[in-house]
Predict the structure.
Amino acid sequence: MVLKNYVLDTSVLLHDGNALFNFDDNQIYITDVVQDELDLHKTDRGETGHNARQVIRTIDALIQEGKGDRDKGLELPNGGKLFFLRKTKPLTAVAQITTEEPLKIDPLEKVYSALERVTALLEDQNRTADSKIIDIAMHLMERDKEVPTFVVSKDINFRIEAYSRGLPAQDYEYDRANIDLGKFYGRTQEFEVGGDLITAIHKNQIEIPDELKASVQLNQYLTLKNGPSQSVLAKIKGNYIQKLKSLDKGGIESIKPKNREQRFLLDACLDPELGVVCGIGRAGTGKTLLAILAGVSQVMGGTEHGEKFEKVVVYRSTPQTRLGYLPGGLDEKLDPYFKPIWTTIKVIFGKKGNDYPQIEELIECLPLDLAKGETHHNSYVVVDDAQDLTPEEVKLIGTRIGEGTKLVFTGDPYQISNPYLDEKSCGLTHLVESLGGKFPEVSYVFLYDVVRSKIAGLFAEHYH
């Protein structure tokens, strides 16, 4: 393997607190600019602050272990080395002049040199942190011509600037899911089978026939058809295919699924044998509405399962640094970020909402930052917009789940607002790749059709 130099941007370390260990036996460089930015972020709320502190502690531990030194590099467990880079500046004109005898200095030249130095200092202060990091990396590339040098960043603009200046740049891909998303999200949910098979499933569950075993996976929802006139909605349970149960005619709401994918998601959310459910779909497909509907129904005894849970807990990520500028207490600061959830609840209950004065007591909305230290027992937990979570944040939520609790994630991997994530590195994709189809407690459902309104569907499908 060819030895490489990797200069890390701050975004990589804020994204993954263990990133220093993920470059094999190559040479890792951290600039003084990155060190300053880590110091600024170490008090952040949430995942970025946690990762900044973790990197700082890791570096300190490496120094304390005394393996290597500042010049030869700190030895990393994987065989690589960690170096620190600072911008090297040429001797200034003023510094050169002061080495001469005072009588030989031209006063006017001294003034011009001082002005040049001040101008250079002001220009340096006005340059972005990205430009400074790239400057240092380019100096390394020129100094160490025998070893290929790359900058690594989660910031696409950083990578573009580096490329425009002739410096090779890479995305941090260590935690990207190793899946073909086109095939993954377009997975077949409809199969053509014989009429006898459909008739048998309508009567009772049957063993998975050989013709389907290679095409389906655990807890998968599917439509079995025999021509245009005969079909059944079913799911895989262990080694069997089961027909979906009909929905309760009663209940606390009048909302019913508008398509088969919504029917699949609602079934999964109501299935007492499933502990983790992922509803994946574009905006307007109804995933959040159905997830909360199923939770509220099971809290208020509106299903055949009765009052299965004590409360519904809804998590959403919130901005890391803006809350302090908003007026009011914590609840008032968080209200704008949970307004979509309460809008969804109003849609569920409609005008009947006044008949349920305990609604607000049964539904708890929490920012993701407050998940650490929590343990949810006998609760129905919804994580909304889960595509904006990192894999570490998804794991944090999952490890908060106690006895008698169901966990439902909803999101769209193609609608990510986190600037350092994409459809292959977000926590929602990692969750489906890691657990989907492998454990009897886990199921995921894809929703394709926008049902919010005809206009919403028009924009979602045809506006480019």
Q: What stands out?
A: Residues 204 and 447 are 27 Å apart (CA to CA).
